[in-house]
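Possible regression after last week's pipeline update?

I re-ran a chain I had predicted before the update to compare outputs. Posting the input and the new output here so someone can diff against the archived version. Not blocking, just want to make sure nothing changed silently.
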Amino acid sequence: SAVYDSPAKREVYRRAIGASPASVAFNGRGYDLDGLGGIVVYELGFFALLLIPVIAIHLAVRLSRTEEDLGRADLVTAAPVGRLAPLGAAALVVAATLTTAGWLSWAGLVWAGLDRAGSGRYALILTLFLLACATLGLAAAQVGASSRGAYALAVGALVLTYLVRGVIDGQSLDGAWLTPMGWLAEVRPYGDWQLWPFALMAALSVALLAGAVAVRTHRDLGGGLLAARSGPATASP
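New output (post-update):
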């Protein structure tokens, strides 16, 4: 806060950083950069858009498909439990972890002196976004033939979304609503905030989780919708 402790400094930031197409493509669209809250959200852009979501995907795949690959899920499903028990347990643990992270984010922003309501809105949309990424990981865990394939599918989809959003934002195109990463910025938590991104993000998480449940209901344990590729027919010398 000491770096941008005056309106003049924040105006310089808005003109220099917030108006740069390269910076917008990298961090997403910046709103309310005349206030400290908007600057903080903008500076967290790359971490919130790509790095932290990868952690959410890793957690989801690790607690679901990796357990199958290691044979632990066999021990659980051999007991008198439903076939969806491992997936349900993984989803609950991931949801609890990310919700806790959201609360800690809100507490950290408030501790830094930012507006409590705006910090709450940002922490909420960030939590919903991470939950959407985690459910993407859970869905990929049902589609891929292994945990490695699930990682590739989920992270590939995330990176593709980031690149599409980067083109839209960097070129100032009217398409921020096309990607979940665009919804994250469109909340504008510290200014004239909007409700629709919260609803879309929550609906996306529910849809991905429903898809994961539907696939898990029909696939074999240890299998996936995508068959594993055969190895080479002959060995090297």
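Follow-up from reviewer: compared with the archived run. Residues 116-143 form the longest helix (28 residues). Marking as no regression found.
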